[in-house]
UniProtKB/TrEMBL annotation:
Subcellular locations according to the entry: Cytoplasm; Nucleus
Name of the featured protein: Signal transducer and activator of transcription
One GO BP annotation of this record: cell surface receptor signaling pathway
Entry's Gene Ontology molecular function annotations: DNA binding; DNA-binding transcription factor activity
Length: 750
């Protein structure tokens, strides 16, 4: 319920956005009266792309209906009578609306909760002072867009009124013109009338004709002026429409796409499309109204041709308004859910494309089909240059056709590709040192449909973010580096898929911090000291001053093509190894602040030598990818009164899959205090594996325990524990214990 309480505190544009989430598909009363229940349900656990989970969605629907009915029953008193009826009606409405499509309810509620969370988070950033100016700017921009829509609505209404006046005037003109023709016919028929009567009637008819013709002459001039004035008004409205469309498509939509790209690196969620869709639908509505007005003007002109340039003006206006709506339709065919950017062959993947104006333009009345094909970087360049690449692709995707569906509850028209799989890939000739994990592809989504009763036909296409195709899991690390660099440093409107070869170190720091925080699911990112450590590693520099690195640039080659000095891995491979280790095994300890990590051996020694014996810290290994070591200070057993800093052989994912870090630290009795001065049990006890209290089926289960030999011959020349041999034996024993019994017997018998 906490989210709903915060959502009710929203103000201004944020409040309007929140209110716009609700409607007949999901009334706000349901959100209000079932707030706590709604927020406690596992909506995110339902995979909307998996038809097998429909039963889970159906249970959630049934539970929601039951909760509404229960809430209705407890309403009493005079004030509760109407609410009781209302909630009972809503329960029946939900049952009838979503019983055959429970996924739609889940999709709707997930969307509402995510949007509320985003709005509340943005408002929280404002109140904390960090994003106040940005939010003020955002609010002003939204206000500017809404004001422009009001101007356009008024301008469109005014031209509609003027058009009706013109139509009325023209109809009266035609009536008078017909009257003039009737007078002329009467004059022509006077030849058969006796002379005396003819003279009298002819004079009257001539006078009447002169009056009508004079009026027709004046009115023809007035009508022509009306037409020109109306064309001028439409020209101004089209100018406003272009300006508004540019603001929405070239700024707001592009910014959303940029946020979507950064989300691929772990950035904040790009936000919902509801506000953008509502703007695009308003644009479509206004454009279509103006287009219909211009066509009616053309019809009036054809009905009553008058001398002048109005026909050319209307032809140009019609062409301009058609260009505007074409730009809107083609630009709002977007990818709502991107395919994975590291794409493994023979592996299922999903994507969703959406047409933001599809519902407004009734495209769903004849649902279009969308096709997905994979194309190379060169083919993508040719596509953007409008060079013919029809039927060209760089591979074969299975299940690559999908019909767009209209979701009435949310008003969206989208195609959900749920079971695509890349069967094969055709690679191009690579340049120089470029590896397969640096080669970029993209998924092209294309469709064709018509609007206005086949009046306008559109062929729309959109490209996914760059994808790197791999055939083996071992390529994932380097492919991720390519994706991270592209997502972080791509510029809007670039030629596919150009990125700078060098960037400022500070820019890369932002990307690494974003990635790290996202993987840790934590606000605890990389500190300035951490980033200095990384700079020392990337540039082989010993300076501890952050300012020394601020204006330095790092190249792609330094990032992930050239090995670090004296190592057989790159800077990124080392960093990604750390991220993977932390993500799989040590995330809670990082979030607790128990792992310093980014500390070199000399720094660890300097930090520990000033602390009591038994003080230890955890730092990432310099020499091994995805390794973490324990350094601690203790007496030198070979020299009375001398203290040394000891370093254990680094642990890796393999070690922690056998025994956790907390249990290993618990095993080592000589580790007493986590640097700087926290008792180890205070930090790690909550993660210890509880001891087995009794035998199972009469058997006592053996336990693995880690020990460090107390022997002076275990010291290497650097004063470190050389546990290579003993650790190898320990690992071998641990692995034997973990193997199925049948395998052990078969190996012994053989």
């Amino acid at each position: 319920m906490a989210m709903w309480i915060q959502a009710q505190q929203l103000q201004g544009d944020a409040l309007h956005q929140m209110q716009a989430l609700y409607g007949q598909h999901f009334p706000i009363e349901v959100r209000h009266y079932l707030a706590q229940w709604i927020e406690s349900q596992p909506w995110d656990s339902v995979d909307l792309d998996n038809p097998g989970e429909e039963a889970k969605a159906k249970r959630l629907l049934d539970n929601l209906v039951a909760e509404l009915q229960k809430k209705a029953q407890v309403q009493g008193g005079e004030d509760g009578f109407l609410l009781k009826i209302k909630l009972g009606h809503l329960a029946s409405q939900f049952k009838s609306t979503y019983d055959r499509c429970p996924f739609e309810l889940v999709r709707c509620i997930k969307h509402i909760l995510q949007s509320e969370q985003r709005l509340v988070q943005e408002a929280t950033n404002v109140s904390s002072g960090g994003g106040g100016q940005a939010m003020d700017t955002l609010s002003q921009r939204h206000q500017q867009i809404n004001q422009a829509f009001e101007e356009l609505r008024l301008a469109t209404q005014e031209t509609e009124n003027e058009l009706r006046k013109l139509q009325h005037s023209q109809e009266y003109f035609i009536i008078q013109y017909q009257e003039n023709l009737r007078i002329q016919a009467q004059l022509s028929s006077l030849s058969s009338v006796p002379p005396a009567e003819r003279t009298q009637r002819e004079a009257a008819l001539q006078s009447k004709r002169a009056t009508v013709e004079a009026w027709l002459t004046r009115e023809a001039s007035t009508l022509q002026k009306y037409r020109l004035d109306l064309a001028d008004q439409h020209q101004k409205t089209l100018g406003l429409l272009r300006k508004q469309q540019t603001l929405i498509l070239d700024e707001e939509l592009i910014q959303w796409k940029r946020r979507q790209q950064l989300a691929g690196n772990g950035g904040p969620h790009e936000g919902g499309l509801d506000v953008l869709q509502s703007w695009c639908e308003k644009l479509a509505d206004l454009i279509w109204q103006n287009r219909q007005q211009i066509r009616r003007c053309e019809h009036l002109t054809q009905q009553l041709p008058l001398p002048g340039s109005i026909e050319e003006l209307l032809t140009k206006l019609n062409a301009d308004i058609t260009d505007i709506i074409s730009a809107l339709v083609t630009s709002t065919f977007i990818i709502e859910k991107q395919p994975p950017q590291v794409l493994k062959t023979q592996t299922k993947f999903a994507a969703t494309v959406r047409l933001l104006v599809g519902g407004k333009l009734n495209v769903h009345m004849n649902p279009p089909q969308v096709k997905a094909v994979i194309v190379s970087e060169q083919q993508a360049k040719a596509l953007l240059k409008n060079e013919s690449t029809h039927s060209e692709s760089s591979g074969e995707i299975l299940n690559n056709n999908c019909v767009m569906e209209y979701h009435q509850a949310t008003g969206t028209l989208s195609a959900h590709f749920r079971n695509m799989s890349l069967k094969r890939i055709k690679r191009s000739d690579r340049r120089g040192a470029e590896s397969v994990t640096e080669e970029k592809f993209t998924i092209l989504f294309e469709s064709q449909f018509s609007i206005g009763g086949n009046e306008l036909v559109f062929h729309v296409k959109t490209l996914s973010l760059p994808v790197v195709v791999i055939v083996h899991g071992s390529q994932d690390n380097n492919a991720t580096a390519t994706v991270l660099w592209d997502n972080a440093f791509a510029e809007p409107g670039r030629v596919p898929f150009l990125v700078p070869d060098k960037v400022l170190w500070t820019q890369l720091c932002e990307a690494l911090d974003m990635k790290y925080k996202a993987e840790m699911h934590s606000g605890r990112g990389l500190t300035e000291d951490n980033l200095v450590f990384l700079a020392q590693k990337a540039f082989s520099n010993s300076s501890n001053n952050p300012e020394d690195y601020r204006n330095m640039t790092i190249s792609w080659a330094q990032f992930n093509r050239e090995n670090l000095p004296g190592r057989n891995f790159t800077f990124w491979q080392w960093f990604d190894g750390v991220v993977e280790l932390m993500k799989k095994h040590l995330k809670p300890h990082w979030n607790d602040g128990a792992i310093l990590g980014f500390v070199n051996k000399q720094q660890a020694q300097d930090m520990l030598m000033s602390k009591p014996n038994g003080t230890f810290l955890l730092r990432f290994s310099d020499s091994e990818i995805g390794g973490i070591t324990i350094a601690w200070v203790a007496e030198n057993p070979n020299k009375q009164g001398e203290r040394l800093v000891w370093n254990l052989l680094p642990y890796t994912t393999k070690d922690f899959s056998i025994r956790s870090l907390a249990d290993r630290i618990s095993d080592l009795n000589h580790l007493l205090f986590l640097y700087p001065d926290r008792a180890k049990d205070e930090v790690f006890a909550k993660y210890y594996t509880p001891p087995l209290s009794k035998p199972v089926d009469g058997y006592v289960k053996p336990q693995i325990k880690q020990v460090v030999p107390d022997s002076d011959n275990m010291l290497d020349p650097d004063g470190d524990f050389d546990l290579e041999d003993t650790m190898d034996v320990a690992r071998h024993v641990e692995e034997l214990l973990r193997r199925p019994m049948a395998n052990q017997w078969s190996s012994q018998q053989s």
